[in-house]
Automatic annotation (TrEMBL), chains A, B, C, D:
One of its GO terms (biological process) is L-threonine catabolic process. InterPro entries: ArAA_b-elim_lyase/Thr_aldolase (IPR001597), Low_specificity_L-TA_bact (IPR026273), PyrdxlP-dep_Trfase (IPR015424), PyrdxlP-dep_Trfase_major (IPR015421), PyrdxlP-dep_Trfase_small (IPR015422). It catalyses: L-threonine = acetaldehyde + glycine; L-allo-threonine = acetaldehyde + glycine. This is L-threonine aldolase.
Length: 352, 352, 352, 352
């Protein structure tokens, strides 16, 4: 039972087949082929407006180039204390921005608290250049702990950004998982709430490596071709990304895959909630589960063949996790089977 | 007749099939899967020694990270005047090294002249820090104009590097094409001549996006995991690169593909040499041809359906290219057909 | 009564006169003059060992280049939550290191708590490159809130650094002020406790702009000439810094100036402690005072002509500062007069 | 006889005295004092328009921050082949711009040839991002070989910049020396010809370390406070730079000092022109002389006590300098005496 990460999965057959279908013949390179253009057009449809789209190879690249694109001298970007950009990207955002800083903001359940954001922003006054200047806010949807910002929560944060004249970036490494939970349109989850730039992830949801940087105001993306090329993210045979997105976005495949993953997580959560030996750290809103349990219980799970990451205990859980308890992270994916869910559930309840 | 670039081609069926074969099932991420390890081991065999291998997504990434890995404060890397690193990577090497400089070195036929390298190095004296300090020499094999360094030429340049205490990097975007022309082993073309770091390219020769950074002294590569991750080049589902290399390096496929491309170029060169209306700028030693011809002849080729790049006239050709003449670049690839070669040859000779 | 900052003061007459004395005649440039060499030698004497010294123009430069000199890819430097490097240098350390990160560490009284440092360091494991890698710890002596690390506290932190194989840097913008309080030798406050690199500040204590970067192991500073020049910190007429340090370090002037400033602060602290309307946030151990008082009292001080900064309330004071109270920062300097201290004390007690 | 460099000189007494005059008393820090403001105002008068002025510590800082301020992703700045920015700043411009490139342009007498600039710019087309994008042209006035751009030459280059939509920067490390030769106003030598940004140097002409970054369109300089602070170039006691400029710009002192230096160079040139053993590489138009002579003659000069730099033979002199000949560089300064000039002239002619 592999629940280590959704990036341990392979790719969906429809995507693999489309890649094979486009593997022969000649096509112009560096993002100029007919397929590239057609998939870019597809993003316009999905977001119900003209957007500027740039394919890149990793989520770290998408996030880092998004911040590089809106960077300012002495720039400071604000993210949640547990965000992937600050915890898991080995300093890539700082590296690509030439040293701009990520300032963490507190908030429960992996979500930035608007009041805390306001408080942090107060330290940066135009007459006090020593602190640097705010240049962006970045939120993660779904968050690093699998929770989801409601549209109005996004809108509130976007409002603060507008006040301060800085753009709002959304790290959508698990964009589809959030979308199907909310049941809103891509437009409603992004620009209609005030999101300016989006990292649109496909890799964790059934692609090989397909990430897109989406600017809702194409005017603001004029330097992106240079920013992407300079960062070694302009692939020559770009149709290999375009072909993945082509299949991914066809006939709602992307939404179906995310629904499948989320559904499995929901069912696994139900088992956890019935157990006396573990409890959920946060509500399960996408495809991640964070059970808290005694180390002995975690050992039992491992012995039963469950693979998962042990999670560092974040600040807002310090009081809720007892000594000798651990926090586990389990992630489902598009290919998780009903059998795995059942086997997991039985295993959990067998301990009760 | 597509001769615009070898990166306009797709992928070889054996590679595409291997990718499909590895697309299902779970595998540990970020370069730790069994397949990753197995392909890394394959590099040891190919190079007849233990090497450190890092897969990345683009040739620009491989070159830039190679230089970042050997960088020094105020660093200066030396490359040929027409090298890809300085002409076609949008400043990526400078960006990834935090501002180290590429100093161009002259030399005919796309190859760095050892005397010119020595001359340039003389400007950099330990007691004159204002100039910066040399940190690497980088050569391209095959070169940007399709020529090839003989092993003893590489050895001569490596000797200069050793004297100065700086490493020698080889940009092997077309490594296989050079190798089959020389008919030597990978080891003989690299570390046995004194090459320290290699960008091993697969993309132009039949892969989707498969590039590897190879360090012949693994001790020197200890920080590479951080260098690669920080540069957003650590893919999560790395098996998609490993699977490409797995098929590429199996049963000499890579050498067969390169041989096929080179052979086509050789045959096309023969037609050009028979024509009275065009002549070759440099000898054809791999899969690139650079015919010089009157603009009217170039127009005739285009009208006949030949697709190619018009090439900026480099310094050493200034006296050899008349006004109203142009330099064209034609590139063959693994999938170029006999029919295309024949059609091209007929077209060329029809003008004679 | 100017207590805004010690950098509002001018320079001590002895330093000004020495500058004038060295203003005529020719001297070799870029740090190679006899005076430069002589002052460098003086640093060896002061620190009782051979050190490598590099003069720079600002404290921000000294700190940033210290970190740049010990930087590693994906590097993370640890500093106190309120440290100058992270709060007041506009991202210079991150900029000069090409994007390395400053990770803040908690601790009361402006001092890094060893246990907290250990806790933060735990997140960085060699097998988890996503977090980056520790590359330095930096402490401030005297701290940003005017307190002082005892030698054994420095030694404890240095011990943690040694365990992790990372260097310990000391930001000594107010080095002399700390030294005279402790009554130890420069060696005892630095390398004898395990400090590897020091920013030795003169500007705040009576110079115009005289800062030195001191490496206790000169072997580790070999690239510094390039690091400093590349950062635009190699002055041509370096004797203008050397002449300042020459006078500053002569006949213990630097210690006398620091003693004078500290003494004034101690006397002002006594007045504050007698007042019923204000109290000290932290003990006064160098030349800074942080009284907490009602806004109305602060207004009274201002009306009486006292100039000071209002200080953002740091985390460890949150519970100690009531609503409607503010934290003020007052800084004495080498030129603060007895009259000012008496006027201030009277003013404070007049409110009682 | 010290002719090694004008930065071997000290400071003019009027400047030294003004520094002493401003050394006592309190003044607000970080560029906000009354003296700072007054000197900034003086720049408006000198340039006959409102300008944005930023004091920095070195010429390298001024040039590098000027380029950082106008930087673009994948940016390429064009400078003369022998320019200080590319030859003598240890990569600082590339470092401060995060890896933008300096592309050298040929031209005789140390001056960029407009035709060559146009030719280089042609390689950069909006549809070919691989080459990067032009972001500035930078010229040096007086040039690195002591020659001077005529106003109409500046205007021609500025015209090319306007066509391409990129700013023109002038490195004015020897601004005053050029100005007095041309006999035009500061405005006529800069913005009236189309210069956008100026590095205004005082150090080589009688200051300790006084350099200013001048933006003729203050709107374009909005981020400069952050750019300067982040680069560690915001001094706390900025009045030490302001006081230097205050005296330097008072009663035309700066012009008088430059005239004195230039006059000495002119007289020394006359001696060289009368000698049979040496000749001038370029016409002497400011305070630098470049005699070409046999090595034996150079040895004779050295033996006679003349201190100078031997200069690397630049490309346009290759045919003019015989084997066994060397190029010397002699620089006069504000404090060069009549006696030195006479002694030098006699020495030169004694060899004839």
């Amino acid at each position: 039972m592999y629940f280590t990460s959704d990036n341990w999965a392979g790719v969906h057959p429809a995507i693999s087949e489309n890649l094979a279908r486009h593997s022969s013949g000649m096509a112009s390179a560096y993002g100029t082929s007919a397929l590239d253009k057609q998939v870019e057009q597809r993003f316009n449809e999905i977001f119900e407006r003209e957007v500027a789209v740039y394919f890149v190879g990793t989520g770290t690249a998408a996030n880092s180039l998004a911040l590089a694109a809106v960077n300012r001298p002495g720039g400071v970007a604000f993210c949640h204390r547990e965000a992937h950009v600050v915890k898991d990207e080995c300093g890539a955002p700082e590296y690509f921005t030439g040293g701009s800083r990520l300032q963490t903001v507190d908030g429960p359940s992996g979500k930035m608290k608007p009041g805390e954001l306001r408080r942090e922003l107060k330290s940066f006054r135009p007459d006090f250049i020593h602190a640097g200047q705010p240049m962006a806010v970045t939120i993660t949807q779904a968050t690093e702990v699998g929770t989801i910002y409601q549209p109005e929560e996004i809108s509130t944060i976007a409002g603060i950004c507008k006040e301060k004249g800085i753009p709002l970036h959304m790290d959508g490494a698990r964009f589809a998982n959030a979308l199907v939970t909310l049941g809103v349109s891509p437009a409603e989850m992004t620009w209609k709430q005030g999101v300016d730039v989006l990292s649109f992830g496909g890799t964790k949801n059934g692609c090989w490596c397909a990430e897109a940087l989406v600017f809702f105001n194409p005017e603001k993306a004029k330097d992106l071709p240079y920013i992407r090329k300079r960062a070694a993210q302009l692939f020559s045979k770009t149709r290999f990304i375009a072909a993945q997105f082509d299949a991914y976005l066809k006939d709602d495949l992307w939404l179906d895959l995310a629904k499948a993953a989320n559904d499995k997580a929901t069912r696994m959560a139900a088992a956890i909630q019935q157990s006396k030996h573990c409890r959920l750290a946060w509500s399960v809103e996408s495809n991640e589960l964070f059970p808290i349990m005694p180390e002995t219980e975690a050992d039992r799970w491992r012995a039963a063949g469950v693979m998962f990451h042990q999670w560092p205990v974040p600040g807002d859980l310090t009081d809720k996790v007892e000594e000798h308890e651990v926090v586990a992270r389990l992630v489902t994916n598009f290919s998780t089977t009903d059998e795995e869910v059942e086997e997991f559930s039985k295993m959990v309840l067998a301990g009760a």
